[in-house]
Design brief:
Strand content: 15-25%
Low-confidence stretches: 254-276
CATH architecture of the largest domain: 2-Layer Sandwich
GO molecular function: DNA binding; DNA-binding transcription factor activity
Organism: Nocardioides flavescens
Protein name: Glycerol operon regulatory protein
CATH superfamily of the largest domain: GAF domain
Order of helices and strands: HEHHEEHHEEEHHHEEEH
Radius of gyration: 19 Å
Distance between the termini: 28 Å
Oligomer: single chain
CATH topology of the largest domain: Beta-Lactamase
GO biological process, one term: glycerol metabolic process
Strand order of the largest sheet: 6-5-4-9-8-7
Mean pLDDT: 82
Keywords: DNA-binding, Glycerol metabolism, Transcription, Transcription regulation
CATH class of the largest domain: Alpha Beta
Number of domains: 2
Length: about 280
C-alpha cells in the first residue's frame, strides 16, 4: 500500500474498470480490487461526483466516466511508453533481423502500440492500432503471466472469452493457467502459429516499479527460421524489455516468479519518464 491509501485504492478501481468490456457490479469491483464492499461504494460515489465513474442504477452497475476518457486521451497524445520504447525496439530489430513490436493489455486483448518492421520479412497482422486476443499472442501471454489470479478470472469469466483464430490455443481458464505457469517458469512467452500460421513469436513483459506488467516486447519470425538461434532471440527480447523496465524503475528481469506467486499482489502502475 502506498503512502496515500485512498488514492491507491481509487487508482486500483479505475484500472479494474478500464479492463472490463461493460459496466460491472459493486460486488465484482470490491472482489477484484480486494476492498470491503462499503469502502468500494464510497470510493465509487466520490468518483461519480468527479466524473471518472458513471453509475447505472437500473442495472446496479458501474463503468468509466467521461473524465476517465479525458485522461486516456491525454495519455494517447503524450504516449510516454511508446517514446521510451521506439529506439530500443529499433535496435532490437537491428540485432536480431526480425520484426518486433510493443503491445499493451486492453481488456482481454492486446493493443499494438509500436512496431518495427525488419527489411525483407513477411508482413504481420500486428500493426499499430490492431487488437488481438491476449491469450493467443506471445506479448499478451507475457503480460497475463504477471497478473494476479483475480484479475485473470475477471478477464476470462467464461469459455466464450476464449476465441481462436485458427483453431489452436487455450480454450478454458484452466488451460490458460497451465500455459501461463509454463511462461513464468521459462521467463518468456511463446506463440507458434496461433496468430498467423507459419509465424512464431517470443515475448517478455515490461514491468513498472510495482512489478506490474505495462506491456510486452515481442519478436516475430517464420517458424523454423530461428533454428538454434531461438535462445539468442529470447535473450535479446529480454534485454530490451529489461531496459524499458529499468527506465520505468521496475525490476530488470521478468523471469520466473518466486514459488507460490503468480504475479504482483495487486495491479498498480506508474509511468516515470526517466531519461535513457
Amino acid at each position: 500500500m502506498g503512502q496515500v491509501p485512498a488514492a491507491t485504492r481509487t487508482l486500483r478501481v479505475l484500472r479494474y474498470l478500464a479492463t472490463q468490456a461493460d459496466p460491472v457490479s459493486l460486488d465484482a469491483i470490491a472482489r477484484a480490487c480486494a476492498l470491503p464492499r462499503s469502502s468500494a461504494y464510497h470510493l465509487l460515489t466520490a468518483m461519480v461526483e468527479e466524473g471518472f465513474v458513471v453509475h447505472l442504477p437500473d442495472e446496479h452497475r458501474w463503468g468509466l466516466g467521461v473524465a476517465a476518457f479525458e485522461v486516456g486521451s491525454g495519455y494517447s497524445r503524450q504516449a510516454p511508453l511508446q517514446r521510451l520504447a521506439r529506439r530500443p525496439l529499433a535496435e532490437l530489430v537491428d540485432r536480431v533481423g526480425h520484426s518486433a513490436h510493443l503491445a499493451v493489455l486492453h481488456g482481454s486483448d492486446v493493443l499494438y502500440v509500436l512496431e518495427e518492421r525488419a527489411p525483407g520479412r513477411p508482413p504481420l497482422v500486428s500493426d499499430v492500432g490492431v487488437r488481438l486476443p491476449a491469450h493467443l499472442t506471445a506479448s499478451g501471454r507475457a503480460v497475463l503471466a504477471h497478473l494476479p489470479p483475480a484479475q485473470l478470472r475477471a478477464l476470462y469469466p467464461a469459455a466464450s472469452a476464449f476465441v481462436t483464430r485458427h483453431g489452436t490455443g487455450p480454450t478454458s481458464l484452466s488451460a490458460l493457467r497451465v500455459l501461463l505457469a509454463e511462461t513464468r517458469q521459462r521467463g518468456h512467452a511463446e506463440e507458434r502459429g496461433e496468430v498467423t500460421p507459419g509465424l512464431a513469436s517470443v515475448a517478455v513483459a515490461v514491468l513498472d516499479h510495482n512489478a506490474h506488467p505495462l506491456a510486452g516486447v515481442a519478436v516475430t519470425f517464420p517458424e523454423g527460421d530461428a533454428g538454434g538461434d531461438l535462445e539468442r532471440l529470447v535473450t535479446e527480447v529480454a534485454r530490451t524489455a529489461g531496459l524499458l523496465s529499468r527506465r520505468l524503475r521496475g525490476p530488470t528481469s521478468a523471469g520466473p516468479a518466486p514459488r507460490g506467486r503468480t504475479g504482483p499482489k495487486l495491479p498498480r502502475s506508474r509511468i516515470s519518464l526517466t531519461p535513457p
